Amino acid sequence: MIVNRILSLKGRDVATIDPGQTLSEAARVLAERRIGALLIVDGHRPVAGIITERDIVRAIALHGAKALEEPVSRYMTEKVLTCTSETTINHVMELMTQQKFRHVPVVESGRLSGIISIGDVVKLRLEEVEAETQAIKEYIATA
Ligand code: AMP
């Protein structure tokens, strides 16, 4: 199973934010869209960084509420690990487990073309397990 399967189900929309926007604006977009991460785009690279709800919590814990008025560029992770639509879901799961993050952007031909969250992966795995269980039940019933 490859990443393209998830993208064909959920779409390729990715929520983004400019590096100069504030953490407060990032938090508002995360809350409004009910998501956990925003990609930072600067017009030069497909992905200039990623900011997640964890980064915002950490910024406030370390610097207090004034961090909310600072630019996301100060708190984003710049070195973003990405995948392509051909990457296997197993590899994405390995990345998330080993690196301890829950989001992997999809980049193709130098363009941002989707994002996979841990929730997307768990949903797909559950569907697979249910399908396998159903197939085994049917096999046993007809054996
Ligand atoms: P998350 O679990 O996705 O909320 O992210 C935990 C930490 O890893 C945060 O500091 C994020 O900025 C960072 N992070 C999330 N996704 C990635 C990624 N694909 N590549 C690099 N860092 C990431």
Keywords:
alpha+beta, 16% strand, 143 residues, binds adenosine monophosphate, three-stranded mixed beta sheet, elongated
Molecular shape: elongated
Task: Flag low-confidence runs.
Answer: none
CATH C-level class is Alpha Beta
| Largest sheet features | 3 strands, mixed
Mean pLDDT: 95
Beta-strand percent range: 15-25%
Series of secondary-structure elements, N-terminal to C-terminal: HEHEEHHEEH
How far is the first residue's CA from the last residue's CA?
A: 28 Å
Ligands, ions, cofactors: adenosine monophosphate
Helix/strand-derived class?
alpha+beta
CATH domain fold name? CBS-domain
Strand order of the largest sheet: 1-2-3
Q: Quickly count the domains.
A: 1
Describe the structure.
It contains 5 helices and 5 strands, in the order αβαββααββα. With 143 residues, the chain is an alpha+beta fold. The chain has a single domain, classed as CBS-domain (Roll). The protein has a 3-stranded mixed beta sheet. The mean pLDDT is 95.
Write a short abstract of this structure.
The protein is of the alpha+beta class and 143 residues long. 46% of the residues lie in helices and 16% in strands. Adenosine monophosphate binds at residues 36-37, 50, 52-55, 77, 80-81, 101-104.
